[in-house]
Amino acid sequence: MYSPVKGARVSSRYLGGFRSTGGHSGIDFAAPAGSKIYAAVGGRVISVGWGGAYGNLTKVQHDDGTVGYYAHQSRFAVKAGQRISAGSLLGFVGNTGNSTGSHLHFEVRRNGKPTDPIPFLNFDGKRTGSLSKEPAKQGGSFATPQGGMLPDIIQMTDPNDTLAMLEAQGMGASPGGKAAGGFSTPALDAAAGRPSEQTDLEQSLGREAGLIQQSQMMKAMQAQQAAYQTSMMQATAQQAPAAISQGSHSSGGGASGDLGKLINAIRAKESGGSYSARNRHSGALGAYQIMPGNIASWSKAALGYSVSQSQFLANPKLQDAIAQHRLGQYFRKYGASGAALAWYAGEGALKYSEGARNRKQGSYPSMNSYVQDILRRAGL
Ligand SMILES: [Zn+2]
């Protein structure tokens, strides 16, 4: 058996089935992020783009009728429709989708069902190109960058980004959602510190299942956060007004230039400038429509202390200060359009494919159309 990533080691072998049922639908090759991925088998690229739990995914139609999946990539090197041969550069190893630690998940499907990929990785002497001729190393003592202690589904995204994403998809978690639990994790891989993922047939149909599970978990975390926040609120209630009035973060029209224009455009689009706005579906609050779960941490970051939801809603200056701080960070990191994208769909959205950004999000506009509208309003 040979590896489509040079020097990679097998961190998780094919077991049949899917992660959610204790199986594994492909072979995982652990390798540093950015390592080159070579096609194991020739054929034609079917699609290149976001594959839900598979992260950035390239699907290749093999000449024998099977389909190859190359998952969790950081970047692509081919386009849909392109003819490739064994050994062609396909893309680069990453950690996108439901994945812990950078690795390639290689999967082969026959009639839509996963089949053992090993026959597709046996170098037969006829293939050309750079498919690694070194036998793939078996076993996995590969340490994930994150330490590999948490199940994939937790590490997949920043909780806040996940909620923003749900919101962007018009899937705002239902109020009082169920507590965490019931989701399966690749506990074995995680415990062994091996890169792995929760690739699953249902999840391959979309991110929904995974995100709903996550949203339930996030709800539970938020409930804890809210309880903590309430207890903190008494302690900070006294200092809040003083800090606001003298705080250097206080906005009151502090931001100028392009950042100021961006902030004004986002406020106008999100709420029409209504500081008491509440979104009945998503629960987002205030003039900038910030998710309740973000208020405590974002206010802490902007002001040095956490504020409650009611304090937040009652105080326009507070909202300005928090939005200005957060948007300022995004703006400096990503520029105006990247900041608008992060505001709408979370910082994780910066890594999404064009296709994902162009898709309409349920009853909500696509990420790209949101960004375009913000830039137009801001005159940027
Ligand atoms: Zn895998």
UniProtKB/TrEMBL annotation:
It comes from Jiangella anatolica. It holds the Pfam family Peptidase_M23. PANTHER family: MUREIN HYDROLASE ACTIVATOR ENVC, PEPTIDASE-RELATED. Gene3D superfamilies: 1.10.530.10, Glucose Permease (Domain IIA). This is M23ase beta-sheet core domain-containing protein. Residues 23-117 form the M23ase beta-sheet core domain. It comes from the Bacteria. Residues 130-150, 171-202 are annotated as: Disordered. GO terms for molecular function: metalloendopeptidase activity.
